[in-house]
Amino acid sequence: MHDHDTPEHLASYADVLAGELPGTWTSTHLPADAKDDLAELSDRIWDLDLIAASLAEHPLQQVAVLSRPDGAQLVLLDRRDERDGFLLAAVAPRTLPDEAYRAVPEPNGIALANDPFLSAEQVADDLLARYDSALTQVRHNALDSLQPSQPDRVVLTWQPDGSVATAPADDRAGAVLMDNGFVQDPQSGIYLLEGDDTQAQARALREIGPQLDALGIGTALQHPAGRTTPTAAPASMPPVPASSRTPASRSR
To answer: Residue 251 pLDDT > 80, yes or no?
Structure first.
């Protein structure tokens, strides 16, 4: 059995695995002292089976993150039982609204033998195929959950978890959004502003109004439940108070 406390073995295994998977993948090692990154990653592991059961008993200590240019990520972690090898899980994109995950089956992770060359075939035929299918579904759902923007108006939609999402039709609007804290999903084009820091979120929403207005682009703010056409918001768009929004955990 390999040594769970030896990061070199995990990192080297991940490097080989990344090179053997179809497409272009890079590998990054997160050591045990990267506690904030590990906690954030643990919340996004897209699994309700083998990996979830392991994490319930053994929180992440060190991992390797395999990343693809389109934003897809896999996380490799040591097995913490009597068996040799590793566990590999899919990672849910942080930029997509929680509503997009509803009714999409989790691409549950798999156990890998201590041979990255053989494991690459297993990953490509099993986990990666299910992960790509789930990603396609949630990205499609995310677009359907948003009121479309127009070239002269950006529609911002509150999400159940308190974040704000939008899919601008103008690259100039996208640049303004990213300058004010929005993060773009590379495949769907959706921009998401997290609601963890409500003061920072409110400040960003206030500031993008006049910046977009200077480009001749209006703004509108809506809640997804109504699905009604929103009225144009003023340039200095007042944020909805945090107390009026009910956070909802992501259904994965």
So the answer is: no
Helix (H, G, I), strand (E, B) or coil at 77: strand
User: Is the predicted pLDDT of residue 7 greater than 60, yes or no?
Assistant: yes
Cα separation of 135 and 187, whole Å? Answer: 10
Rounded Cα distance, 159 and 28, in Å: 31
- The partner residues of 28 in beta bridges, in order of sequence, read 65
Whether the pLDDT of residue 4 is over 80: the answer is no
| 111 bridge partner residues | 87
User: What are the beta bridge partners of residue 153?
Assistant: 150, 218
pLDDT at res. 226? 41
Two tokens at 150? 């127009």
- Are 118 and 68 a contacting pair, CB within 8 Å? no
Average pLDDT of the chain, as a whole number: 85
Average pLDDT over residues 138-166: 88
- pLDDT, mean of residues 144-173: 89
158: tokens are 């509150």
Who contacts 229 (Cβ-Cβ below 8 Å, separation ≥6)?
Answer: 147
Asked whether the beta carbons of 120 and 17 are under 8 A apart, the reply is: yes
Burial 90-121 (b: 16+ CB within 10 A, else e): bbbbbbbbbbbbeebebbbbbbbeeebeebbe
How far is the C-alpha of 65 from the C-alpha of 44, rounded, in Å?
A: 12
Q: For 181, which DSSP code?
A: T
Mode of pairing for the β-strands spanning 86-91 and 73-78 = antiparallel
Give the integer Cα–Cα distance in Å for 27 and 205.
35
